[in-house]
Amino acid sequence: MKRYVNNPIIAREDVPEIKPQLVDVTSVFNPGAIKYRDEFLLMLRVQNRGRETYLLTAQSDNGIGFALSKTIVEFSGLEDVSETIYHIYDPRLTAIDDTYYIMFAMDMDSGCNLGLARTTDFKSYRFMGIIASGDIRNGVLFPEKINDKYIRLDRPNNKPLAGGSTSGSSIYLSESDDLINWRTVCPLMSGRPHFWDELIGSGPPPIKTREGWLHIYHGIATHFGSTNIYQAGVVLLDLDNPEKIIARGKYNILEPREPYELVGQVPNVVFPSGMIVKDLEPDGTAKSDSELFLYYGAADTSVGLAIATVSELIDACHEGNESDRE
Length: 326
Ligand code: BMA
Description:
Radius of gyration: 18 Å
Bound molecules: beta-D-mannopyranose
Number of helices: 2
Number of strands: 24
Shape: globular
Largest sheet: 5 strands, mixed
């Protein structure tokens, strides 16, 4: 993908002062993204110097210059959760009809759970519940039901990382009738040991194209002595049966190269979390010649924008697997 020339598009200095929580903040990264009333909308993860996490929205008419809201996102209904919630972060946004769903990670004593909330106006937000517990994150909801079921991808954490934390080596597909109770259908794809995506997790929710569901995920190379390297890659899933992988790119499509990706709170990280396709067919399918904006966290410190066309990313799914198309 091509980086926007004036990256990062949002940095800590752009976060408005909201006293007492957000004053001279540390970082802003890993945004969810969605088109809302013809505008580009991001939901940003902001961290203050107490290492507390807050979510803020930002809006733009061109997807590049964003105005950040002066109000912190608050979810009604969270007060019903009896356990302490330390952080809510890495929101992924999905529109289904006129409702916008936000799926996020929740750090709690019981582990990292997956939570779901909804809004219709990006002013008031309703927490709907904890939809997976144990140790799981990177939950992303598909923008429509398939075979009458809601579908999500998620990533249980089970592999130890150098440094003591854990991460996952497989993305799973789950289904639900009501968005609250979910059933694991199958493991969808696994990390590829020794290569760029040894551990993996979903990025933004998949988008519908004529050729399949186009999905960007992150891959972590863990075999370098000093650091893990977070990169982005692509996979194409069957439209009617997303358990079926049509093609998975052999190469990453974005990797840490620029100083703001190489240096920061967590070095060597590009973490794709939001994606907006500019032009859609009347039925909501992405036009293949449309530009696609990918928003990503850079070094857990700022927000980068990378751009490609839909067809370039579909080609990238086949790259290195040329026999796929014969
Ligand atoms: C992942 C998550 C992300 C973070 C990334 C890089 O495990 O915690 O929120 O951006 O690590 O530190």
